Amino acid sequence: MSAPLLQLADCTMQFGGLKAVANLDLVVGAGELVGLIGPNGAGKTTVFNVVTGVYAPTAGRVTFDGRAIAGLKANRIACAGITRTFQNIRLFPRLTCLDNVAVAAHPHRKAGMWSAVFRTPGFLADEAALRRQAMDMLEVLGLADHADALAIGLPYGQQRRLEIARALAGKPRLLLLDEPAAGLNPQESEDLMRLILEIRRRFSLTILLIEHDMKVVMGICERIAVLDYGVKIAEGGPDEIRRDPRVIEAYLGEESVHA
Amino acid sequence: MKRLLGPLVVLVVLVVLNSGLERVLNPYFFQVLILVGINIILAVSLNLVNGFTGQFSIGHAGFMAAGAYGSAMFSLTVGQRMVNALVAGHVPAAAAEGAALLLALVLGGLLAAVFGYLVGLPSLRLRGDYLAIVTLGFGEIIRVLILNIDVIGGPRGLPGIPKWANFFWVFLVVAVVIAVSRNLAHSTHGRALFAIRDDEIAAEALGVDTTRYKIVAFVIGAFFAGVAGGLFAHYLCYLNPNSFTFLKSIEIIAMVVLGGMGSVSGSVLAAIVLTLSPELLRPVKEYRMVIYALMLIVLMITRPQGLLGTRELSLDRMLRRRRPAETRA
Fold first, then answer.
1. Would you say B183 and A117 are in contact if contact means Cβ atoms under 8 Å apart?
2. Which class in CATH covers the domain with range A1-81+172-259?
3. Within an 8 Å CB–CB cutoff, is residue B206 touching chain A?
4. What is the tally of helices (H) and strands (E) in chain B?
């Protein structure tokens, strides 16, 4: 495995009496494509929320590229190079597709607020650059035709793509995808798998992926970690995971193992 | 050079109108015109907070009051003496008064901005109705404070404020607040505000410093409300705490909502309509406010998104006669 980019060490996230994530150790190497799976309520999205700063972990360390990020504010973590998509799509519905993506380029602005108020030449150049970056990203995701359409008007599948475009516009080094295939038809899932591999290559990304669609997970992930009740019960390559009795038990119940 | 052309044209137009209008219009119409201008400033500045950023603030009259009293106190103490000294030094009276007014407005605006900062702080933790209640309380606190400070007149009000504001100054500030809003809206900073309005968690996850931007919206909004208050004080020459009640805040909110949340030109349009209509309805006497209220209800039923929705009136677009790209979904 290559040098670790993201490292969770002994991470616990407790809500009152509930340990959503318990003593989790997880390492994602630079350039890896890692899957995070587990039954509903296993704590997968909580892991994302801890990594992206929505929650500060109750205990444990999170390091990104050697830097401790646990407890940092979400916007600082995004600027440090981790962006994400959401399980329930969270676009900016009243902004155009282009503006949705341009918001994510915001951390890369060079001109300040005063120069925006006075529309200085420096600001205008910067603004044009941000919009160009956003437009490029729409093109990569095949959404350039919808640049001026409101995000809310897009069909579901394209909304998911727009979320990915938006996450990419932040120029992340680590991309977290939370169930990108949810609600997609088989053809769209196929396209999504190709897309994920394509953006990883193109932007030299490291990707951590939560997904229920086993075809997608097994098809593209190099390594898979399985969570159940907040505890990591297995980790390994797709074939290992597919055969692992603990994983089968967690997904299908105890009897099917003994059957 | 091209950038300076617009502001220059605005200045020339304002100077010409300033010397012409007061002579042509009767004093009543003229005063209504000034109030229209002040209300535009208030509505456009509140739109920055409520419309752009989606933080529901209903204490805007409080900021206006802070600016009004702050600038009036400056003029009554330092400003007046400054003008006397300048005039004695052979500076033309209009220039001296303009300079003093400008200083008074900026100071009043800054005082209001400080309050805006303080009110912005709870917005970091509170949302929706809860934030509305806090801002409402804050606005009332400012008014009650004024009511109880004897030096600034308390319930008797504050008379004798020099009449330095005129058409030129009021509509200069109108132009500035519209330009600032519009320029912000068309920048990455404006997009950050819109993003907070539409989905705060997503905005934060994309690297928008939501804390900073929410505070900034409150501070800019409060600053211009304070300046509007300063103009109000220096035009009417008399201040009374009763001008800044909760009802005034509601009036400003009505303008923002009616114009279309987030639309600068909508706020302007609604400020004009809502200031003029009670005046135009004067002939129907006691039914005036009934019809006014009915008008609001009918408008909200027929156009819940406001007069302009989130769109802007644009000369460009009207000339090209093209439908806006954003078709409603």
1. yes
2. alpha beta
3. yes
4. 14, 0
